[in-house]
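Hi, here's the filled form for the chain we discussed.

Project: internal
Contact: R.S.
Residues: 534
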Amino acid sequence: MKWKTRLGAGVTALAAVLGVVSAPAATAAPAAALAAPDISLANIKAHLNQLQTIANNNGGTRSPRGGGYAASVSYVENLLKNAGYTTSRQTCTSCIGQSQNLIAEWPQGDASQVIMLGAHLDSVSAGPGINDNGSGSASILEVALTLARTNPATAKRVRFAWWADEESGLVGSKYYVNNLPSSERTKIKTYLNFDMIGSKNWGYFVYDDVASVKAIFDEYFASIGIQTEGDSEGDGRSDHASFKSAGIPVGGLATGAGDIKSSAQAQKWGGTAGSPFDNCYHRACDTTANIPDTPLEKNSDAIGYALWKLAVAPTQGNDFSVSLNPASGTVQPGQSLQVAVSTATTSGSAQSISLSASGLPAGATASFSPVTISSGGSSTLTITTSASTPTGTFPLTVTADGASVDHTASFSLGVGSSSCAPVTNSTRLDIPDYPGAAVNSPANVAGCARNASGTTKVEVHITHTYRGDLVIDLVAPDGTAYRVKNSSSDSTPNLDTTYTVNASSEAADGAWQLRIRDVGPADTGYLSSWTLTV
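And the returned structure, exactly as it came back:
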């Protein structure tokens, strides 16, 4: 109790050092600056030092299993309140210790158009989690304080979140999204996620889920001469998956975790080939000594650049909105449906807009009539499926590429109907030998109007000369990965077995994946079939 009192005093003092200001009065004129300011590396490191101190005072960890997570929330919240943010804590009843999500909103901009930035604030029990994920949490905290300090005119509402219990399976962010009314979900136009952006043997990875969002980050990195790659290692393994599964456009940054840096990546970014991007990932050595300045500075400035690009704009600029009616629809394989695409000029003059759609399942196509319109006009989207289109529910993104700005709208496409009967994929899938990438085999469940069971069955049949080399995950429709098999020294050939997974927190309907990776050299094989029973 005494320590918490001292922390509160320290926060007040630190707020003065970092130059935090109060929210402006309603009559104050906002600053006119539109270019993103520099995000202070020194201030971010000060936040990380505070998180390290919190861990030191709580058994070396900021896990929700002890007091470290709650103290981290208090530290972040006090700084945000002093800066003028509207903050709230959401108790996550499914999280360890019913830990809390922290939400902070800047009280300016159009509340019906929200740009949201998030990072998980918890660590694993094994260490203080300064890269995973103090780096993301401290960076978006400093971006939030910079937004308050510079106070630009914002065209959209800006919301920040620090998630509870990510390390147990994205529990906090799932709870938040699942408890949002549909009317509130539609207000979130983009969610940006930042998880591990200060890895010691770093790379520069940009989430590639939405091309228009990725392009903003790539634009920044290109301006400072840095090449990026898509983030395959973190795909579906951090909190953006909770938003993506709800049809909300997502983006984000990472610098790598336990994957190995290749020779080509070392040539491109420097560092050590053949070593993990972060050899302290989920370990006690993930301290402030594990964080180099370079990736932390580059990525935090990229976050600021993206936020200013997405939310800060001259009120006199040309802008428009886009909407879909209906926002969801279901067809049988071989059928088609039509969706009305409407636009409106919201400021300035009308502009030319090109329309496109992404996220379509195999065998499905999308066409617009017309494909190019002027804002204020409308188009008809026709989605056509084939007899081979898999059944399931698929989140589609309609992108309206304007001459001045871009916008997206989400559509939920349902294909076919079935029961909760087992689903089998018997298409052969070759498994590349190490160091090849992981491969995925889909299984689509539709018409099963419940969650998957706590005893979900995964029956696997693999021909392989050394099955101990194989690592296998079941990936849920929202991107959550469930490890069913780790690598081992088992030299027995072939794998014919059934695994049991507790997937009771997942909706049964959707596109499931069996992800297989060979992590040992010299032996090869293939997946002959697998069956999923939810």
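Let me know if anything looks off before we file it.
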